[in-house]
Amino acid sequence: MEFWFVSLTVVVIMSGNLLLRAGMITIKDSAISQRSPLLVLAEALQSWRVLLGVLLVLLGMVAWMVSAMVWRMDWSYTALGLSYVATIVLAWWFIGETMTLEKMFGAIIIVIGTLLIIRNSGF
Amino acid sequence: MAFTDYFAPIKRVSQQHRGVIIMFNTTLALLVTGELCLREVVPASMVLSVDSVAAVLLQPLGLLGLGFLLAGLLMWSVLLVRHQISFFYPLWGLGSVVLLGLSWLRPSGWVDPKALFGVLLVLLGAGLLMRGGHSRS
């Protein structure tokens, strides 16, 4: 049950982030370059994609953090790390972002490094 | 390839996107602070349920943690207006480096050499991402 719950929280974080990004790219270039970040944010929050994305990421993060603190499973960090790699592929597939070998290898090396830190630091 | 050849594109990207890097670092700091607040209020023996999580989050430090997380996410949203999520999302892994640094600062802090090797790998991965570029949409 723990395995599936942690996996679900990571999928929620990843989906929320992709939704958030999909909502943010709909904001017009003119609005970004001429306005302060706060005004850009105010405009962005009128989009249902951005609102839902922020809500999903917040819920997913809280659920993931609490479950990682209570259950202390290696899978929590492994799953989050795998979502970095999955996001590169999904963002390329659904949003049209660039996918390069350096991005993929960079993300994989970050995942391995994060796991080494977590396993040997007693978090 | 010369050693300096690896770092040249990283240096170029760092100089070109200084504002964005500051914004990302602030986002990361807010998210890590939120996590640290939650670590203080979540008991290790807690039985996970909606009620127990709600009770923890309604404590002052829990609410503060939620506030930090929300502030971090709003700044994260602004970052994603023009920059690719596939570039920045893997960099969340740097949060574990920050947490390790903070645990080292404690009086009884000791860092395992394997964890230090992990830090090196995370930094190498971040460098590769920056070399890959294409952060702009």
| Main structural class of chain B | mainly alpha
How many distinct helices of chain A? 6
Largest inter-chain contact set: A-B, 65 and 58 residues
What's the helical proportion of residues of chain A?
over 70%
Biggest beta sheet summary of chain B: none
Note poorly predicted spans of chain A: none
Distance between the termini of chain B: 29 Å
> What's the shape of chain B?
globular
Distance N to C terminus of chain A: 22 Å
What quaternary form is this?
Answer: heterodimer
> On the 0-100 scale, what is the average pLDDT of chain B?
83
> pLDDT below 50 for ≥5 consecutive residues: which ranges of chain B?
none
Total number of beta strands of chain B: 0
Strand portion of chain B, in percent? under 5%
Q: List the secondary-structure elements of chain A in sequence, H or E.
A: HHHHHH
Structural class designation of chain A: mainly alpha
Rg of chain B:
18 Å
Fold blueprint:
The complex is a heterodimer of chains A (123) and B (137).
Chain A: H1 2-24, H2 29-34, H3 37-44, H4 48-71, H5 74-95, H6 101-119
Helix pairs in contact in A: 1-4, 1-5, 5-6
Chain B: H1 3-16, H2 18-41, H3 50-57, H4 60-79, H5 85-88, H6 94-105, H7 113-132
Notable features of this structure?
heterodimer, A: 123 residues, mainly alpha, 83% helix, B: 137 residues
Structure at a glance:
Chain A has 123 residues and is mainly alpha-helical.
If you had to describe this structure to a student in words, what would you say it looks like?
The complex is a heterodimer of chains A (123) and B (137). Chain A has 123 residues and is mainly α. Chain A has one domain (2-119). Chain A contains 6 helices and no strands. The longest helix of chain A is centred in the middle third of the chain and has 24 residues, at 48-71. The two termini of chain A are 22 Å apart. The mean pLDDT of chain A is 87. Chain B has 7 helices and no strands. Chain B is mainly alpha-helical and 137 residues long. Chain B has helices at 3-16, 18-41, 50-57, 60-79, 85-88, 94-105, 113-132. Chain B has one domain (3-132). In chain B, helix 2 (18-41) runs antiparallel to helix 4 (60-79) and helix 2 packs across helix 6 (94-105). The model of chain B has no long low-confidence stretch (mean pLDDT 83). Classes of the chains: A mainly alpha (123), B mainly alpha (137). Chains A and B meet through helix 1, helix 3, helix 4, helix 5 and helix 6 of A and helix 2, helix 3, helix 4, helix 5 and helix 6 of B.
